[in-house]
C-alpha cells in the first residue's frame, strides 16, 4: 500500500475562511497531518457561512476536511504558549490574517523561528506583507476588482467572476510554494517564509491583456462569452440553452461549416480567415446561430465533435455531477461528516500513479473538536489540560472531552 505524498508532514493551520484553508485542504488530501486552530466560541468565520445541516456549515467542512480541530485563545499568554509548543513540532505553519496580526500578538514568524529554525511559514494576505497597500483588508472581489481582472470580464459592463478564483488561486500558489520550500529544506536543511498576495494572484491571471497592452498601449475591449483571439470561439444559442464552439484552426472552421450546412461561408470574404472573422464577429455569430438556435445544445455538441470540432453543451453543475461519465472521472468525493451525515464535495484534481489522495476525511464538527487529543499529543498532562480548559486558554465541548 502506497503512502500519500505528504504523509508524516505536520502542519499548524492558523487560517480562516477560504484562501489558506483551501491550501490546507489540498495538503490534507495529500496526507499531511494538520491541526486547525480556531478561536473559542464561534471559531472560524466561515462556520457562519451556509449551507448548513444540523447547524454545521458545509462550507467550513469542505475547506477543512482532514484536519484536527483545536480552539485556542491566542490573546492569552497560556494560549500563546500552546501555539508555540505546536510550532516547535511542526514542519509548516499557514495563516491568512491581516498583515501584522500575529506580530502584534507576539507570535509572528520571527518569534516562531526562534523555537523552530527549520520552520516553513506560509502566509496569504490581500496586498502582500510590504508596500503601501499591505495594511489594507481584502476579500476575493476586492483583489479581482483592483487588479484589473474584473475589467476584462463581461460585455457592456464589468462582471465579477462567478466563483472566488482569487482566493482559491492564492491557495493553490501557497500549496505550490510550500511544496518547493519542503524540497529546498530537504536539500539544505533550512526553513523559509513563503508569502502569497491575493492581488498578485489576481493580476497573474491577466497575462494575455498585459502582453497585448505592452505591444499596443491599449487593452482589448471585453468580448463577453467569446474569445478575443479566435472566431468562432464562444457561446452560441441553442433551442434549450447554449453551446460552446471552439474553433482555433482553419481546418476546424471548414469542418464546422460543413457540419452545420454552412459551406457557403467558407468562401465568404467576410470570413476568409480568423482575422476577418474577428472583425465581423457579430455577422458570423448571427449566421451560426441561424442554424444552432433550432438545435439542442447536446445535439450541437455531438454533431460538431463528430466532425472534429471542439464543442460542448453549457451544463449546470447538477447536470455535470449526475452524468454517469462524470462519476468515472472521480471528480466527486462523498464525505461522511459527524453530525451531518453524507454530502458531496469536489475531489482534489491531482492524480498520482503510485500515491493516492484522500478527499473523504471529516472536518472538525465544532471549534476545538480535538483539543484534548491534540494537547495530549504534545505531552501535556491531564492536569495541565484541565487547567488550560478551565482557564479558557483552550476550549473543547464538555460532551467531547476524553
Number of structural domains: 2
Could you tell me how far the N terminus lies from the C terminus, measured between alpha carbons in angstroms?
A: 32 Å
- In CATH terms, the superfamily of the largest domain is Crotonobetainyl-coa:carnitine coa-transferase, domain 1
Question: Which CATH class of the largest domain applies here?
Answer: Alpha Beta
Layout: helices, strands, pairs:
Elements (H helix, E strand, L loop, with lengths): L9 E4 L5 H11 L3 E6 L13 E2 L2 E2 H6 L3 E6 L4 H12 L3 E4 L5 H5 L3 H7 L4 E6 L14 H8 L17 H24 L3 E6 H7 L2 H10 L16 E6 L2 E6 L3 H10 L14 H6 L1 H12 L4 H10 L4 E3 L3 H6 L1 H6 L2 E6 L3 E6 L24 H7 L4 H10 L2 E2 L7
Parallel strand pairs: 1-2, 1-6, 2-5, 6-7, 7-8
Antiparallel strand pairs: 3-4, 5-14, 9-10, 10-11, 12-13
How would you sum up this structure, described in words?
With 402 residues, the chain is α/β, with parallel strands linked by helices. It folds into 2 domains: 10-205 and 329-400, Crotonobetainyl-coa:carnitine coa-transferase, domain 1 (Rossmann fold, 3-Layer(aba) Sandwich); 233-314, formyl-coa transferase, domain 3, CATH 3.30.1540. Helices cover 39% and strands 16% of the residues. The chain has helices spanning 19-29, 58-63, 77-88, 101-105, 109-115, 140-147, 165-188, 198-204, 207-216, 250-259, 274-279, 281-292, 297-306, 317-322, 324-329, 371-377, 382-391, and strands spanning 10-13, 33-38, 52-53, 56-57, 67-72, 92-95, 120-125, 192-197, 233-238, 241-246, 311-313, 332-337, 341-346, 394-395. Strands 8-7-6-1-2-5-14 form a 7-stranded mixed β-sheet, with helices on both faces. A 3-stranded antiparallel β-sheet has the order 9-10-11, covered by helices on one side. It has a two-stranded antiparallel sheet with strand order 3-4. α7 packs across α8. The longest helix is centred in the middle third of the chain and has 24 residues, at 165-188.
